[in-house]
Amino acid sequence: MTTTWTAKELDRIGAADELDIAARRRDGSLREPTTIWVVRSGDDLYVRSYRGPEGRWYRATKTRHEGHIRAAGVDRDVAFVDEPDPAVNARIDDAYRTKYHSHGAEYVDPMTAAPARTTTTKIVPA
Question: Domain of life of the organism in this record (predicted)?
């Protein structure tokens, strides 16, 4: 099993409007998937919770930091890694603004505001 993204996976997921994310429960089973936005920065993929730390899917990722994603024909087990670095978060803000600008400020602004920024999560192949 590969533990890095292939160029094709990065391109496909990075271009996808949405990603289905499911966190793994303590017993190893997967929760129901939630559809969210995903952005790419270099060779990394990131997600944020629109509702900040109170987002259900985000809270669920804290149980085992493991789960599964599906987007644009890519279906992978993954790990969830917190990303607190301010420089990375600034790049992720830009990525959200660029990719989702057509959805309007009412949706993009909350994704680049402080509550969502605290939930920046890097998705790493497991």
Answer: Bacteria
